[in-house]
Write a structure and sequence with these properties.
By secondary structure, this protein is of the alpha/beta class. It folds into 2 domains: 42 residues, no CATH class; 246 residues, NAD(P)-binding Rossmann-like Domain (Rossmann fold). 41% of the residues lie in helices and 13% in strands. The chain contains 10 helices and 9 strands. The strands form 2 sheets. It has a 7-stranded parallel β-sheet, with helices on both faces. A two-stranded antiparallel ribbon has the order 1-2. Helix 3 crosses helix 10 and helix 6 runs parallel beside helix 7. The longest helix has 29 residues. The chain is globular, with a radius of gyration of 27 Å.
Length: 335
């Protein structure tokens, strides 16, 4: 071991080094002699925060308990979602459905809101039959009475609201010169007004609790100029600005605001956008996958895993951020 730069002091005729904790210094010096017997008679100045090799059993500060490794079961790693009450808009298909299932598997109590009644009732039955806590609320994410009722349902049934996912979305494509006002309102009402309404009614509950988190589902379309996505991209970019402003207003009261930015994810909404093309969906998907750096499209569960972390207590210092889940699309735009 190179000792250059180290300072040593003779035990005789030289003032000995006295660290803040004499007991620890003695223990560390003794450990040094076990490794380098030639240092006998020398006093080695060990820093109070020396790394683990200098420690002896019973000396120094107590060790922190070991964290679960990545090889532990998922349910143990994500046990911090246990008993959390989470409201998901657009929670019966695509990313929302993936989130609902994953959160329930990790012990959360989920309220899934959607205008898809049959799918919502099927999701509720499927999850409750597995022993999970899941409630379906039929409602439109762009209608304030429906959003308020969903928040009230979460609080009345489960006693609190720990997290909310503004996930409901609508996709309308086309060049702006041919875009109808009705389509514009359809996109903006669900993609932007919906999250505004969810925040309006969820924040007071969370501030009263002193803690909560709201996650917005934006899109890489907010960062890349996708062809014929002007209005959709504008609605998703607006969510980022909304998140940042809400952070300054309400994070001092204990509410965090985060967002995920999915890339091309295999969802029913994406499949619907492929209708009317002159090629089958599978051919279109394969062509898109070849342009993504990881050479595959995303799955709802890919996004759900990221959202699960953002809603957890372990992400307690993660705030005012957008997490891309896009397989590298932003590094190499495919269009």
């Amino acid at each position: 071991m190179c000792l250059r730069g180290r300072r040593f002091f003779r035990s005789r005729g030289t003032r000995e080094f006295s660290p803040p904790c004499a007991r620890r210094a003695h223990a560390c010096s003794s450990a040094a002699l076990l490794v380098w017997p030639g240092l006998a008679g020398l006093h080695y100045p060990v820093h109070p925060f020396a790394p683990a090799p200098w420690r002896q059993e019973g000396l120094g500060p107590p060790r922190r308990p070991e964290r679960p490794s990545s090889h532990e079961p998922r349910s143990r790693i994500m046990s911090h979602l246990k008993d959390k009450v989470i409201l998901i808009t657009g929670g019966t298909s695509g990313i929302g459905e993936g989130c609902a299932e994953l959160f329930c598997e990790h012990g959360a109590k989920v309220v899934a809101m959607s205008i898809q009644q049959a799918e919502g009732e099927a999701l509720q039955k499927r999850l409750t039959d597995r022993g999970f806590s899941c409630a379906f609320h039929f409602g439109d994410a762009s209608k304030e009475p429906d959003v308020k009722a969903a928040v009230d349902l979460a609080v009345s049934r489960f006693g609190r609201l720990d997290a909310a996912c503004a996930n409901a979305g609508v996709l309308r494509t086309g060049k702006i010169t041919a875009f109808s006002v009705d389509d514009f309102h359809a996109v903006i009402n669900v993609n932007l007004l919906g999250p505004v309404l969810l925040a309006k009614h969820a924040i007071p509950v969370m501030e009263k609790q002193g803690k909560g988190v709201i996650c917005f589902t934006t899109s890489v379309a907010a960062d890349i100029g996708f062809p014929e996505h002007a209005v959709y991209a504008a609605s998703k970019a607006a969510l980022v600005a909304l998140m940042r402003s809400l952070t300054t207003d309400h994070s001092p009261n204990g509410v965090r605001f985060v967002a995920v930015s999915p890339g091309t994810i295999d969802t029913p909404m994406l499949a619907a956008s492929c209708e009317g093309w002159d090629q089958p969906k599978e051919v279109l998907y394969a062509a898109v996958a070849k342009k993504i750096p990881v050479r595959r499209m995303g799955r709802p569960i890919d996004v759900a895993h990221v959202v699960a972390f953002l809603l957890s207590d372990e992400a307690g210092f993660v705030n005012n951020c957008v997490v891309p889940v896009e397989g590298g699309t932003l590094a190499l735009p495919p269009w």
